[in-house]
Protein backbone atom coordinates (compact mmCIF):
# COMPACT_ATOMS: atom_id res chain seq x y z
CA UNK A 1 0.00 0.00 0.00
CA UNK A 2 1.21 3.48 -0.84
CA UNK A 3 2.51 5.76 1.84
CA UNK A 4 1.22 9.29 1.38
CA UNK A 5 2.83 12.49 2.67
CA UNK A 6 0.77 15.68 2.65
CA UNK A 7 3.09 18.69 2.64
CA UNK A 8 1.70 21.93 4.05
CA UNK A 9 3.77 25.15 4.00
CA UNK A 10 2.86 27.49 6.85
CA UNK A 11 3.80 31.12 7.24
CA UNK A 12 2.05 32.87 10.13
CA UNK A 13 -0.87 30.47 9.97
CA UNK A 14 -1.71 30.52 13.68
CA UNK A 15 -5.44 31.19 13.11
CA UNK A 16 -6.03 28.22 10.80
CA UNK A 17 -3.47 25.64 11.83
CA UNK A 18 -5.48 23.65 14.37
CA UNK A 19 -8.46 23.37 12.07
CA UNK A 20 -6.24 22.37 9.15
CA UNK A 21 -4.51 19.70 11.22
CA UNK A 22 -7.86 18.34 12.41
CA UNK A 23 -9.34 18.16 8.92
CA UNK A 24 -6.29 16.59 7.32
CA UNK A 25 -5.94 14.07 10.15
CA UNK A 26 -9.56 13.02 9.73
CA UNK A 27 -9.02 12.61 6.03
CA UNK A 28 -5.92 10.48 6.55
CA UNK A 29 -7.73 8.30 9.08
CA UNK A 30 -10.61 7.82 6.69
CA UNK A 31 -8.40 6.96 3.72
CA UNK A 32 -6.37 4.59 5.87
CA UNK A 33 -9.42 2.79 7.19
CA UNK A 34 -10.73 2.27 3.72
CA UNK A 35 -7.41 0.83 2.66
CA UNK A 36 -6.60 3.56 0.14
CA UNK A 37 -3.25 4.44 1.66
CA UNK A 38 -0.75 2.95 4.09
CA UNK A 39 -1.41 3.56 7.81
CA UNK A 40 2.05 5.11 7.95
CA UNK A 41 0.92 8.05 5.85
CA UNK A 42 1.44 11.45 7.40
CA UNK A 43 1.08 15.22 7.20
CA UNK A 44 4.22 17.36 7.15
CA UNK A 45 3.81 20.92 8.35
CA UNK A 46 6.64 23.14 7.15
CA UNK A 47 7.12 26.24 9.24
CA UNK A 48 8.54 28.88 6.92
CA UNK A 49 10.11 31.22 9.46
CA UNK A 50 6.80 32.38 10.93
CA UNK A 51 6.89 35.28 13.33
CA UNK A 52 3.82 34.16 15.29
CA UNK A 53 3.20 30.99 17.29
CA UNK A 54 2.86 28.74 14.24
CA UNK A 55 5.85 26.56 15.13
CA UNK A 56 4.65 26.06 18.72
CA UNK A 57 1.26 24.95 17.40
CA UNK A 58 2.89 22.59 14.90
CA UNK A 59 4.95 21.05 17.70
CA UNK A 60 1.81 20.57 19.80
CA UNK A 61 0.14 18.80 16.89
CA UNK A 62 3.24 16.64 16.48
CA UNK A 63 3.13 15.60 20.15
CA UNK A 64 -0.57 14.82 19.94
CA UNK A 65 -0.83 12.94 16.69
CA UNK A 66 1.23 10.17 15.12
CA UNK A 67 0.04 11.45 11.74
CA UNK A 68 1.79 14.79 12.10
CA UNK A 69 5.43 15.41 11.18
CA UNK A 70 7.05 18.80 11.51
CA UNK A 71 9.77 20.69 9.70
CA UNK A 72 11.12 24.00 10.93
CA UNK A 73 13.04 26.18 8.48
CA UNK A 74 15.67 28.47 9.92
CA UNK A 75 14.35 31.51 8.04
CA UNK A 76 11.52 32.59 5.81
CA UNK A 77 12.27 31.48 2.25
CA UNK A 78 8.86 31.98 0.66
CA UNK A 79 6.06 29.66 -0.36
CA UNK A 80 7.85 27.97 -3.28
CA UNK A 81 11.06 27.18 -1.44
CA UNK A 82 9.14 26.08 1.64
CA UNK A 83 7.33 23.57 -0.56
CA UNK A 84 10.62 22.38 -1.97
CA UNK A 85 12.05 21.98 1.53
CA UNK A 86 9.04 19.89 2.55
CA UNK A 87 9.17 17.72 -0.55
CA UNK A 88 12.89 17.14 -0.26
CA UNK A 89 12.51 16.06 3.38
CA UNK A 90 9.81 13.50 2.64
CA UNK A 91 10.99 12.15 -0.70
CA UNK A 92 12.60 9.08 0.89
CA UNK A 93 9.87 8.53 3.48
CA UNK A 94 6.91 8.06 1.17
CA UNK A 95 5.72 6.84 -2.21
CA UNK A 96 3.52 9.75 -3.03
CA UNK A 97 3.17 13.40 -1.94
CA UNK A 98 0.39 15.96 -2.06
CA UNK A 99 1.12 19.64 -1.49
CA UNK A 100 -1.61 21.95 -0.26
CA UNK A 101 -1.80 25.44 1.28
CA UNK A 102 -2.39 25.71 5.00
CA UNK A 103 -5.56 27.76 4.63
CA UNK A 104 -7.43 24.82 3.03
CA UNK A 105 -8.87 27.02 0.30
CA UNK A 106 -8.34 24.01 -1.91
CA UNK A 107 -10.82 21.20 -1.47
CA UNK A 108 -9.20 18.33 0.43
CA UNK A 109 -12.11 16.16 -0.72
CA UNK A 110 -10.44 15.57 -4.09
CA UNK A 111 -7.29 14.05 -2.60
CA UNK A 112 -8.90 10.65 -2.90
CA UNK A 113 -9.48 11.23 -6.60
CA UNK A 114 -5.85 12.33 -6.93
CA UNK A 115 -4.73 9.06 -5.37
CA UNK A 116 -7.00 7.12 -7.72
CA UNK A 117 -5.40 8.90 -10.67
CA UNK A 118 -1.99 8.06 -9.26
CA UNK A 119 -2.97 4.39 -8.95
CA UNK A 120 -4.15 4.61 -12.53
CA UNK A 121 -0.65 5.58 -13.62
CA UNK A 122 -0.23 9.33 -13.28
CA UNK A 123 2.98 10.54 -11.63
CA UNK A 124 1.69 14.07 -11.34
CA UNK A 125 -1.92 15.05 -10.66
CA UNK A 126 -2.78 18.75 -10.89
CA UNK A 127 -5.55 20.19 -8.77
CA UNK A 128 -7.38 22.64 -11.04
CA UNK A 129 -9.90 25.25 -9.89
CA UNK A 130 -13.21 24.96 -11.66
CA UNK A 131 -14.38 28.41 -10.68
CA UNK A 132 -13.21 31.35 -8.66
CA UNK A 133 -16.51 32.51 -7.22
CA UNK A 134 -15.10 33.21 -3.78
CA UNK A 135 -12.13 35.23 -5.02
CA UNK A 136 -12.63 38.94 -5.41
CA UNK A 137 -13.08 40.22 -8.96
CA UNK A 138 -9.65 41.79 -8.73
CA UNK A 139 -7.88 38.59 -7.66
CA UNK A 140 -9.69 36.63 -10.33
CA UNK A 141 -8.85 39.15 -13.03
CA UNK A 142 -5.17 39.46 -12.13
CA UNK A 143 -4.73 35.72 -11.75
CA UNK A 144 -6.36 34.94 -15.08
CA UNK A 145 -4.43 37.65 -16.91
CA UNK A 146 -1.31 36.12 -15.44
CA UNK A 147 -2.03 32.66 -16.87
CA UNK A 148 -2.80 34.24 -20.22
CA UNK A 149 0.36 36.34 -20.36
CA UNK A 150 2.40 33.29 -19.39
CA UNK A 151 0.85 31.30 -22.22
CA UNK A 152 1.48 34.16 -24.63
CA UNK A 153 5.15 34.20 -23.66
CA UNK A 154 5.42 30.50 -24.26
CA UNK A 155 5.61 29.29 -20.65
CA UNK A 156 3.71 26.07 -20.22
CA UNK A 157 1.56 26.18 -17.11
CA UNK A 158 -1.63 24.37 -16.24
CA UNK A 159 -4.46 26.90 -16.43
CA UNK A 160 -5.99 27.66 -13.02
CA UNK A 161 -3.69 25.27 -11.21
CA UNK A 162 -1.77 26.58 -8.22
CA UNK A 163 0.36 24.47 -5.93
CA UNK A 164 -2.23 21.87 -5.00
CA UNK A 165 -0.85 18.76 -6.63
CA UNK A 166 0.07 15.15 -6.18
CA UNK A 167 3.55 14.01 -7.12
CA UNK A 168 4.98 10.51 -6.98
CA UNK A 169 8.27 10.06 -5.14
CA UNK A 170 10.09 9.61 -8.45
CA UNK A 171 8.62 12.86 -9.80
CA UNK A 172 9.78 14.63 -6.63
CA UNK A 173 13.28 13.18 -7.02
CA UNK A 174 13.29 14.47 -10.58
CA UNK A 175 12.09 17.88 -9.40
CA UNK A 176 15.10 18.06 -7.09
CA UNK A 177 17.34 17.89 -10.16
CA UNK A 178 16.13 21.33 -11.20
CA UNK A 179 18.62 23.44 -9.29
CA UNK A 180 17.26 26.91 -9.86
CA UNK A 181 16.95 29.45 -7.08
CA UNK A 182 14.24 31.49 -8.76
CA UNK A 183 11.76 28.78 -8.09
CA UNK A 184 8.45 28.75 -9.91
CA UNK A 185 7.09 25.26 -9.38
CA UNK A 186 4.07 25.73 -11.63
CA UNK A 187 6.44 26.22 -14.52
CA UNK A 188 8.94 23.50 -13.62
CA UNK A 189 6.62 20.61 -12.77
CA UNK A 190 5.11 20.37 -16.29
CA UNK A 191 8.69 20.23 -17.65
CA UNK A 192 9.35 16.99 -15.77
CA UNK A 193 7.22 15.31 -18.37
CA UNK A 194 6.00 12.26 -16.45
CA UNK A 195 2.41 11.10 -17.09
CA UNK A 196 -0.01 13.56 -15.56
CA UNK A 197 -3.71 14.00 -14.89
CA UNK A 198 -6.01 16.73 -13.59
CA UNK A 199 -8.73 16.80 -10.98
CA UNK A 200 -11.18 19.69 -10.72
CA UNK A 201 -12.53 21.37 -7.60
CA UNK A 202 -14.16 24.58 -6.43
CA UNK A 203 -11.88 26.93 -4.52
CA UNK A 204 -13.16 28.20 -1.21
CA UNK A 205 -12.50 31.45 0.63
CA UNK A 206 -9.81 31.57 3.29
CA UNK A 207 -11.37 30.38 6.57
CA UNK A 208 -9.21 32.61 8.75
CA UNK A 209 -6.03 34.65 8.65
CA UNK A 210 -4.92 36.80 5.76
CA UNK A 211 -3.63 36.15 2.28
CA UNK A 212 0.14 36.33 2.19
CA UNK A 213 -0.02 37.44 -1.41
CA UNK A 214 -0.91 41.11 -1.48
CA UNK A 215 -0.76 42.90 -4.84
CA UNK A 216 2.92 43.75 -4.61
CA UNK A 217 3.91 40.13 -3.95
CA UNK A 218 1.55 38.92 -6.66
CA UNK A 219 3.14 41.23 -9.23
CA UNK A 220 6.65 40.22 -8.28
CA UNK A 221 5.62 36.55 -8.36
CA UNK A 222 4.24 37.02 -11.88
CA UNK A 223 7.36 38.86 -12.98
CA UNK A 224 9.58 36.13 -11.48
CA UNK A 225 7.53 33.50 -13.21
CA UNK A 226 7.86 35.16 -16.58
CA UNK A 227 11.53 36.07 -16.46
CA UNK A 228 12.50 32.68 -15.05
CA UNK A 229 10.90 30.79 -17.89
CA UNK A 230 10.91 32.97 -20.95
CA UNK A 231 13.43 35.20 -22.69
CA UNK A 232 10.78 36.52 -25.04
CA UNK A 233 10.74 39.93 -23.32
CA UNK A 234 14.32 40.45 -24.54
CA UNK A 235 13.28 39.50 -28.06
CA UNK A 236 10.37 41.93 -27.81
CA UNK A 237 12.74 44.71 -26.82
CA UNK A 238 14.82 43.99 -29.91
CA UNK A 239 11.72 43.92 -32.10
CA UNK A 240 10.63 47.28 -30.70
CA UNK A 241 14.13 48.64 -31.46
CA UNK A 242 13.94 47.43 -35.05
CA UNK A 243 10.47 48.92 -35.49
CA UNK A 244 11.65 52.28 -34.19
CA UNK A 245 14.70 52.21 -36.47
CA UNK A 246 12.42 51.55 -39.40
CA UNK A 247 10.22 54.51 -38.47
CA UNK A 248 13.32 56.69 -38.18
CA UNK A 249 14.36 55.75 -41.72
CA UNK A 250 10.89 56.69 -42.99
CA UNK A 251 11.05 60.00 -41.13
CA UNK A 252 14.49 60.70 -42.61
CA UNK A 253 13.20 60.07 -46.13
CA UNK A 254 10.29 62.39 -45.46
CA UNK A 255 12.60 65.14 -44.21
CA UNK A 256 14.86 64.80 -47.26
CA UNK A 257 11.84 64.95 -49.55
CA UNK A 258 10.48 68.06 -47.86
CA UNK A 259 13.92 69.69 -48.24
CA UNK A 260 13.75 69.26 -52.01
CA UNK A 261 10.13 70.35 -52.28
CA UNK A 262 10.88 73.48 -50.30
CA UNK A 263 8.90 72.70 -47.15
CA UNK A 264 11.17 73.22 -44.15
CA UNK A 265 10.83 71.15 -41.04
CA UNK A 266 9.34 73.24 -38.27
CA UNK A 267 9.31 72.83 -34.53
CA UNK A 268 11.61 71.36 -31.93
CA UNK A 269 8.76 69.70 -30.10
CA UNK A 270 8.68 66.71 -32.38
CA UNK A 271 12.42 66.23 -32.11
CA UNK A 272 12.35 66.49 -28.35
CA UNK A 273 9.50 64.02 -28.14
CA UNK A 274 11.38 61.48 -30.17
CA UNK A 275 14.51 61.92 -28.06
CA UNK A 276 12.55 61.35 -24.86
CA UNK A 277 10.76 58.42 -26.41
CA UNK A 278 13.95 56.73 -27.53
CA UNK A 279 15.63 57.45 -24.20
CA UNK A 280 12.74 55.83 -22.38
CA UNK A 281 12.76 52.84 -24.66
CA UNK A 282 16.46 52.36 -24.08
CA UNK A 283 16.10 52.49 -20.33
CA UNK A 284 13.34 49.90 -20.43
CA UNK A 285 15.45 47.72 -22.70
CA UNK A 286 18.48 47.95 -20.43
CA UNK A 287 16.22 47.25 -17.47
CA UNK A 288 14.90 44.05 -19.00
CA UNK A 289 18.32 42.81 -19.98
CA UNK A 290 19.55 43.77 -16.52
CA UNK A 291 16.82 41.68 -14.95
CA UNK A 292 18.15 38.60 -16.71
CA UNK A 293 21.74 39.44 -15.86
CA UNK A 294 20.69 39.84 -12.23
CA UNK A 295 18.93 36.47 -12.32
CA UNK A 296 22.06 34.84 -13.71
CA UNK A 297 24.05 36.41 -10.89
CA UNK A 298 21.67 34.99 -8.27
CA UNK A 299 21.80 31.55 -9.89
CA UNK A 300 25.59 31.27 -10.20
CA UNK A 301 26.01 31.83 -6.48
CA UNK A 302 24.38 28.43 -5.92
CA UNK A 303 23.20 29.34 -2.46
CA UNK A 304 21.12 26.81 -0.56
CA UNK A 305 17.43 27.33 -1.19
CA UNK A 306 16.40 26.66 2.39
CA UNK A 307 18.01 25.75 5.70
CA UNK A 308 16.39 23.13 7.87
CA UNK A 309 16.53 23.79 11.58
CA UNK A 310 14.48 20.88 12.96
CA UNK A 311 12.83 17.86 11.39
CA UNK A 312 10.49 15.95 13.72
CA UNK A 313 9.20 12.56 12.56
CA UNK A 314 7.63 9.52 14.16
CA UNK A 315 9.86 7.42 11.91
CA UNK A 316 13.00 7.16 14.02
CA UNK A 317 12.99 3.42 14.54
CA UNK A 318 11.66 2.13 11.27
CA UNK A 319 13.88 3.43 8.58
CA UNK A 320 13.00 0.50 6.37
CA UNK A 321 9.92 2.27 5.14
CA UNK A 322 11.57 3.55 2.03
CA UNK A 323 12.00 -0.06 0.92
CA UNK A 324 8.22 -0.16 0.37
CA UNK A 325 8.60 1.92 -2.77
N1 LIG B 1 3.46 30.75 2.65
C1 LIG B 1 4.76 30.35 3.01
N2 LIG B 1 5.76 31.30 3.03
C2 LIG B 1 5.54 32.61 2.68
C3 LIG B 1 4.23 32.98 2.27
C4 LIG B 1 3.21 32.04 2.26
O1 LIG B 1 5.00 29.19 3.33
O2 LIG B 1 6.49 33.40 2.71
C5 LIG B 1 2.39 29.74 2.63
C6 LIG B 1 1.12 30.11 3.38
O3 LIG B 1 1.23 29.78 4.75
C7 LIG B 1 0.06 29.29 2.68
C8 LIG B 1 0.57 29.24 1.25
O4 LIG B 1 1.96 29.58 1.30
O5 LIG B 1 0.01 27.96 3.18
C9 LIG B 1 -0.18 30.16 0.32
O6 LIG B 1 -0.29 31.45 0.87
P1 LIG B 1 -1.66 32.27 0.87
O7 LIG B 1 -2.81 31.38 1.21
O8 LIG B 1 -1.48 33.46 1.74
O9 LIG B 1 -1.75 32.72 -0.66
P2 LIG B 1 -3.09 32.90 -1.57
O10 LIG B 1 -3.90 31.65 -1.40
O11 LIG B 1 -3.77 34.09 -1.07
O12 LIG B 1 -2.56 33.03 -2.96
MG1 LIG C 1 -4.57 30.89 0.24
Task: Compile the SSE list and pairings.
Elements: E1 4-10, H1 14-33, E2 42-47, H2 54-64, E3 68-73, H3 79-90, E4 96-99, H4 111-119, E5 124-129, H5 137-152, E6 161-168, H6 169-175, H7 185-192, E7 196-201, H8 215-229, H9 232-260, H10 269-300, E8 308-312
Helix pairs in contact: 1-2, 9-10
The structure holds uridine-5'-diphosphate (UDP) and magnesium ion.
Brief descriptors of the model:
325 residues, Spore Coat Polysaccharide Biosynthesis Protein SpsA, Chain A, 2 domains, 8-stranded mixed β-sheet, 10 helices, 15% strand, disordered C terminus, binds uridine-5'-diphosphate
Task: Characterise the protein shown here.
The structure is a single chain. The protein is an alpha/beta fold and 325 residues long. The protein folds into two domains: 4-210 and 303-324, Spore Coat Polysaccharide Biosynthesis Protein SpsA, Chain A, CATH 3.90.550.10; 232-301. Helices cover 49% and strands 15% of the residues. The protein has an eight-stranded mixed beta sheet, with helices on both faces. α1 (14-33) packs parallel to α2 and α9 packs antiparallel against α10. The relative contact order is 0.14.
